[in-house]
Amino acid sequence: MRSTTAPATITPPAAEASAPAISLRGVAKHFGETVAVRNLDLDIARGELFSMLGPSGSGKTTVLRMIAGFEQPTAGRILLDGAEVTRKAPFDREVNTVFQDYALFPHMSVADNVGYGLAVRKVARDELRRQVTEALARVHLDHLADRLPSQLSGGQRQRVALARALVLRPRVLLLDEPLGALDRKLREQMQIELKAIQREVGITFVLVTHDQDEALTLSDRVAVFHEGGIEQVGTPTEVYERPATTFVAGFLGAANIIEPELADELFGRRELLSIRPERLRLSAAAPTDSAPTVTGVVTEVVYSGPATTYVVELRGGTTVMATRPAGDDSASHRRGDAVHLTWSPSDLYAIPGSPTRTT
Ligand code: ADP
Ligand code: MG
Fold first, then answer.
1. pLDDT tops 60 at residue 344
2. Percent residues over pLDDT 90 in the chain
3. What proportions of the chain, in percent to the nearest 5, are helix, strand and coil?
4. What is the pLDDT at residue 287?
5. What is the tens place of the pLDDT at every residue in 87-130?
6. How remote is the CA of residue 75 from the centroid of ligand 1, in Å?
7. Any residues with CB less than 8 A from the CB of 91 and at least 6 apart, and which?
8. Hey, where are the domains in the chain?
9. 15 pLDDT exceeds 80?
């Protein structure tokens, strides 16, 4: 087969084409005595759905506000598509923000709320109407275009806010706890929709959340914040299965953390070890193969529908949790039962660095 000629697409200059959508270089923010953000370096790729996850007060919103330009860093540089914007005003940056309190105009219809930014930009009427219709269809609200915000549910209002931001086609969309005000079922639905919309429009999304399930469900990558710094950046699988610190292990769901002393005694490894509860299996009888095992006594059984968690006290008084899915017949133990715990060696994970604790 004959080789084809060069593709017809025009590629931007190499430097810009390869630049991340967002780069932070040595970014810090102090509010008087408070160090809200300490010396961050971070790259977020184009088209990425990136989450900043961490407890309240860990600096997530401050980072988002600095990217948007609402806050000036005390030190460091911020680049968008490789160009420095550190001192630029918010309206000179191609980013758009969706806040937790959607702040819709109460006296304007859904369509007018979504079209507002376009009207400010003096987009012609027919074109404006076309783009609003398209944006509303994307968030499944085309049938509610004439309603007022007060006539919508929380989830619908959230989608109006999203449509209002998307219609302006920013290069980057910043979302600060956008689903925080929704009840759980709606929040889970919106997580799936948000991810689908992001994939469809291909815009870089940066999402702030304190909800680990939300971050794991939605993200291409997650940064785990702690006290103004980032403890780890990785894919959901990496941060969950291979936490870099005890803080990350503990923040992303339940983790059994085994101190080096005990790890040495139980497993012959003098390291800080962690294993997820769902990776521990229980049995009444000792395993017949050569699988590693420790014995213990069930002290608590916690039923939660899809799974049951057993609290097991080991020799020496340390307790671990083992979570078994419903339908796992080998796991019907009661308080006071002696059990053998087994696991795959690869599930017992040595936590590499631990700035939050001295061992
Ligand atoms: P998060 O979004 O992770 O909950 P924030 O970025 O809002 O955290 O806050 C990080 C820290 O900075 C907190 O200790 C907070 O009290 C402080 N902080 C945030 N904004 C201000 C401000 N405008 N003035 C003083 N302190 C602030
Ligand atoms: Mg916040």
1. yes
2. 65
3. 30, 30, 40
4. 82
5. 999 989 988 888 766 789 999 999 999 999 999 999 999 999 99
6. 16
7. none
8. 14-250, 256-350
9. no
DSSP string, 187-231: HHHHHHHHHHHHHHH--EEEEEES-HHHHHHH-SEEEEEETTEEE
With both helix axes pointing from N to C terminus, report the angle between 154-166 and 110-120 in degrees, rounded to the nearest 10.
Answer: 20
Measured at the alpha carbon of residue 129, what is the angle toward residues 125 and 133, in degrees to the nearest 5?
Answer: 170
> Which ligand lies nearest the alpha carbon of 54?
1
Cβ-contact 342, 296 below 8 angstroms: no
**CA of 53, nearest ligand number:** 1
- Which residues, judged by CB distance below 6 Å to any ligand atom, belong to the binding site of ligand 1? 31, 34, 36, 54, 56-62
Topology of domain 14-250 in CATH is Rossmann fold (3.40.50)
* Ligand 2 centroid – CA 178 distance (Å): 11
- Residue 286 C-alpha to ligand 2 middle, in angstroms? 49
CATH superfamily, with its number, for domain 256-350:
Nucleic acid-binding proteins (2.40.50.140)
Query: How far, in Å, is the centroid of ligand 2 from the Cα of 115?
Result: 28
Of the candidates 54, 60, 71, 16, the one whose C-alpha atom is nearest the C-alpha of residue 37 is 60
Distance, CA of 131 to CA of 94 (rounded, Å)? 19
Nearest-CA residue for ligand 1 atom 23 is: 31
Query: Relative to the CA of 208, which ligand 1 atom is closest?
Result: 2
Distance between CA 324 and CA 319 in Å, rounded?
16
At residue 80, what is the residue type? L
Residue with tokens 């309240």: 56
Positive/negative CA dihedral, 262, 268, 274, 279: negative
